[in-house]
Amino acid sequence: MYLIVPKYRILLGVLLIVCQLHAQSNLKTKLLDPEVRHGVLENGMEYFIKKNPQPKKRASFYLVQKVGAILEEDHQNGLAHMLEHLAFNGSQNFPNKEMQGFLERHGAEFGKSMNAYTALDETVYNISNVPISEKVLDSCVLILHDWSGKLTLSPEEIDAERNVVQEEWRTRNNANFRMDKIVSNLRYNNSKFARRDVIGDMNIIINFEHESLLDFYRKWYRPNLQAIVIVGDFNVDEMEQRVRKIASSLENPKQSPERTVYTIEDNKELLYGVATDIEAKNVSFEYAMKHPATSNAEKNEGYVFQQMKMNIIQQLLARRFKEELQIQGTTFTQAQAGYYPFLGGKDIFVVAGVLKEQGMHDGIKDVIAVVEKAKQTGFTPNELNLVMINFLKGYEYRNSIKEDINNDSHAEGLIASFLSNEPYLDTARMLELAEKFASTISLDEINKGLNSWFNHENAWFTIKGPKKESITYPTEKEVSTIIATVRSQTYEVSKEDTSAKTLLSEVPKSGEILAINSFEGFDKAKSIKLSNGATVWMFPTENSQNDVHYSAISKGGISLLEEQEIPSAKYLVSTVLQSGLGIHKQNQLLDILAGKALQIQPELGNYTEGFAGGSSQQDLETLLQLQYLYFTEPRFDQESFDVFKERIVSRLQSQEGNPGVVFNDSLSSVMSNYSKRRPLNSKELLETQVKLEDIESIYKERFGNISDFTFIFVGSVNDSLLLPLVRKYIGSIEGNSTKEQWKNDMVAPPSKNIKKHFEYPMSVSKHTNAVIYYNRTYTYTAENNIYLDMFRAILDRRLFESMRERAGGTYGVRVDVNYNSIPNSSAGFSMLFDSDPDKGDLLHQIINQEVSSLVELGVTEEEFNNAMELLRNDREQNMKKNSYWLGAIKEYALIGMNRLLKTNFEEVLKNVDAVKLNTFIREFVSDTNTYEVIMKPKE
Asked: Could you tell me which residue ranges the Peptidase M16 C-terminal domain spans (predicted)?
């Protein structure tokens, strides 16, 4: 029931809108994958059904409605979203909370496997990735049936939910939300869109008459505005019959009104506005030009090509911005430009940026000038070639992993097909269209596209930022002058280095394989010992078609550094990534890697160092070439470091005094017992104690001995592919026989109870932040870890019911658990919430009561069974993920426990029972140190 508005994506702290909704689409013009079973019931409800074999025996169910906040009358402002909340609280076939109870008994988790969102033009409900059986399939379609028009909406549930929605509003009422409301009239040109923000008017939410909500429900929740979307591993014919049988009984109300389509008017003059807020963290702007949107009937293959052209231009501009950001003294810290669907019959071309507080005028000029220069001088053939390589690679890779695309990804495309007639084609057909586009599109057409969209007409310009006396925001006249100046400038054509480059100047001489051993419990897994002392582990899986997950790990980490080295160590990874590799700067490296599906980066933790990444099968050699360079030719570029440092200092400066940062820093300090080996990020620390020469020295120390690393490959790998590559790019690097071990750096939470309750000035968004944390020594075993996970799941559900649903005191409480074996065995259990200041003490009390109840009375049979089912469900899903395998194998490399083995889960689970769980909970809670970090607003 979270408020998620998919039309709106926050990019660079700037609002960009990416989903246009229209009225009912014409079925004859749908560009739809023929494998999708699409139809319309007599009551007007559409359905989209697709078989997807992965994950096996799983399915996702969606009810999609062309109903959102835009349809509310003024006295109903916020009730579309309120109604979405209430849809989980009782229906014809699932009274009270039985809907949640049924799904939880089958391994679903509220907020994760079942959820919903409301936006301006739509409301979408979902049950995701549930294990299927005849009973589950019938019941899930029946839930969609009830969501469609059979909600109970009892007076008691309506009144109980008012406080929950108010708490959600409070959590969302941040600086960006408030500033967006200020500039909404400019974005939407005083249309109805400007008067709706989905969450609504809290005066209405708290005081509306029940009949107002029922009126909205009866008027708009109806099958001729709805669609059912189901994707999963099932028989499509049987699913279609099921949908027709269950959903055909739904009826439209008599004399139901036509679904209104709202529009946004054009404007001749620039619409300009500034919104400031005392809690804003940075200065951002958006300069947007409205264009007529493509009609639903015109969304054909030509429209697909148009979307591809938009994508190419956006990538080309992103390259230009990235190049500018590598220059020291840049007046902006982030920037982006592109063409996006909007609302009210419009698309928009947007230029957006995040600026430094001082020099704002120059920042606006410099961001817009990047786009204006591209418009006047055009992109170069080499730029287009590099972007096109990446563009095609994306479609090729997606087609190569088509069997791995999950149910919810398919569902997103089908939802868009219903809401706005967006084309939904299979990956092979999309690859064909992409190849056709790439072979026919010219550089001239790309340049003309930018010229057409970036026309400075029908535009708005908004600035958002902190409310400070030290900041002077530009006036409308000044911004108009800046735009005019940028447009009148003459720009030189960009010069670029088009010389051919390769990653490696010479091919390394391969090392030897000394031994290959098998892994107990894994038929195809192998341990390979190389002649330089390095170890390689290979775990082939059938979890994906074309996916290799990769990690290299070594013991030691920051624990082996001197205290004065730690500030530089905190910024080591970011610095190395900014610098490039070998003789190649970062931008040059990205050009060389155009069209490669891979990623790799170093990692430096408190007790380990290593690398993390992955690739397609085809690009595994390139991945290992990069790994070779990270060991043999790491790059430490002073210019790149200075640019990076300048940008981070600016960000840290903007965060100073922010209550959220203060709270997180307080929590971190308590959890490390104020150790100097865990310094907090600060502008002063970065400016005075972080040095490039120290970073280089630390890197060469921690990553200097390849013999001390274990290299792990999981996924689409085999002997013939991997062995020659590891000999060449890992075995060729000289190592030594030294084996390091992490050191107990004596950084640990306090060995006593801690209460850090404090007040901090909060100007507008006044709230209580609280973390209650249990910590204790712990025997790290598979059985104990299972019990701790069950404890978390049960307490999480109890606190959700008591703190959110019954008390209405918070929008949500998060319960987390972590168990560690490095450097010592310990376990932590945290409960985090924020609330209205007046309710903080009550919620703290509820946490203590619920924990005490579990200790004294134990878990119920239903709670135990649901937790067991959740664990089984998670295990089943995790075992199909290469990322889970990789994490488990890394754990085995470090501590010798392999949770992939059935003896460390399935066999353990057979012996788990409620009596043992209750004993575990009592013993765990009775011998913990408790830390309370609670921040309240200072009056």
From this structure: 208-386, 690-870
Residue by residue, DSSP assigns 243-279 as: HHHHHTT--PPTTPPP---------SSPEEEEEEETT
Q: Name the domain boundary from 247, 271, 289.
A: 247
| Same domain, yes or no: 51 and 132 | yes
What does each C-alpha distance from 21 to 35, 126, 214, 342, 347 come to in angstroms? 24, 19, 25, 9, 11
Q: What is the pLDDT of residue 5?
A: 34
Instruction: Please count the residues of the chain.
Output: 939
Structural tokens at position 826? 């310990």
**The predicted structure's pLDDT at residue 28:** 54
Report yes or no: 348 and 290 within 8 Å, Cβ to Cβ.
yes
Q: Residue 108 belongs to what H/E stretch? A: none
Other Cβ atoms within 10 Å of 50 Cβ, number: 23
Contact between 681 and 653 under an 8 Å Cβ cutoff? The reply is no
How far from the centroid of its chain's Cα atoms is residue 581's Cα?
28
- Look at the chain and report how many structural domains it folds into: 3
CB contact at 8 A, 874 and 785: no
Question: Mean of the pLDDT values across residues 781-792?
Answer: 96
Per-residue b or e along 907-938, where b marks 16 or more CB atoms closer than 10 Å to that residue's CB: ebeeebebeebbebbeebbeebbbbbbbbbbe
pTM flag (> 0.85): yes
What band does 54 get if pLDDT is binned at 50, 70 and 90? confident
Report the pLDDT averaged over residues 55-66: 95
282: amino acid identity, one letter: N
Of 691, 698, 592, 565, give the one whose Cα is nearest residue 638: 691
Question: What is the mean pLDDT of the segment spanning 831-840?
Answer: 95
- The encoded tokens of residue 866 equal 């649901």
Report the DSSP beta bridge partners of residue 548.
615, 715
Domain CATH number, residue 773:
3.30.830.10
The average pLDDT across 64-85 equals: 98
Which residues, in sequence order, are CB contacts of 316 under 8 Å at separation 6+?
374, 379, 383, 384, 387, 446
Q: Which of these ranges, 24-28, 360-364, 590-594, has the smallest mean pLDDT?
A: 24-28
